Amino acid sequence: MKKIILSLVLVFAFGQVAVAQDIDKLIEELSKVEGVEHQIVDRSMLDAAVAAGMQADSTGNASSKIPGFMKKLELIEVTAAENVQPELRNRFLAELDKFEDGDKYETLLTVKDGGDNVRILAQRENGVVTAVIIFAIDEEDAAIVKMVGKFDQSDLTDILNEQEKNKNK
């Protein structure tokens, strides 16, 4: 019964939000649902994590492995759900498809491999890429990662390369 109620709440939330094609509203609604985790990591937290990693690295190689776009991040917002019911997963995929390329969003990459779906969007404001949004959905889990900053073309290439490296692990 609890799963049915949760599924209905999620389906209703997705249906109300995606019509507006606004990623922030979709994330906001999704983060209110029971079982969905939502984290925001701001610049100070990113800096602290990098500093801790550098301090723990006795080889001194860590700084050379940090992609350049990481320095331009203002924050990372992650919204994730594990063990997603199939009907909810299908609804999430349908809502994702409503994000069309246009004035605000541009698809950088779409990968559909069996049950795995990844879509990376660039969000533009006045011609400047202000966020990169990664949707990752598989048979059991769904996640949205929003990276906010001011990115140029080389940063977008680095982000796509990082995604490709992560896929191959």
Topology:
Elements: H1 2-17, H2 23-31, E1 36-42, H3 43-56, E2 73-81, H4 86-97, E3 105-113, E4 116-125, E5 128-137, E6 142-151, H5 153-167
Helix pairs in contact: 1-2, 1-4
Brief overview, please?
The chain is α+β, with helices and mostly antiparallel strands and 169 residues long. The chain has helices spanning 2-17, 23-31, 43-56, 86-97, 153-167, and strands at residues 36-42, 73-81, 105-113, 116-125, 128-137, 142-151.
Which features would summarize this protein structure in a list?
single chain, 169 residues, alpha+beta, 6-stranded antiparallel β-sheet, 5 helices, 6 strands, 33% strand, disordered N terminus
Strand order of the biggest β-sheet: 1-2-6-5-4-3
Query: What pattern of helices and strands is seen along the backbone?
Result: HHEHEHEEEEH
Tell me the strand percentage band. Answer: 25-35%
Beta strands, count: 6
Helical residues, percent = 25-40%
Number of helices: 5
Q: Which sheet architecture does the biggest sheet show?
A: 6 strands, antiparallel
Distance between the termini: 38 Å
Broad structural category: alpha+beta
Overview of this structure, please?
By secondary structure, this protein is of the alpha+beta class. 39% of the residues lie in helices and 33% in strands. It has five helices and six strands. It has a six-stranded antiparallel beta sheet with strand order 1-2-6-5-4-3, with helices on both faces. Helix 1 packs parallel to helix 4. The protein is globular. The chain starts with a helix and ends with a helix. The N terminus is likely disordered.
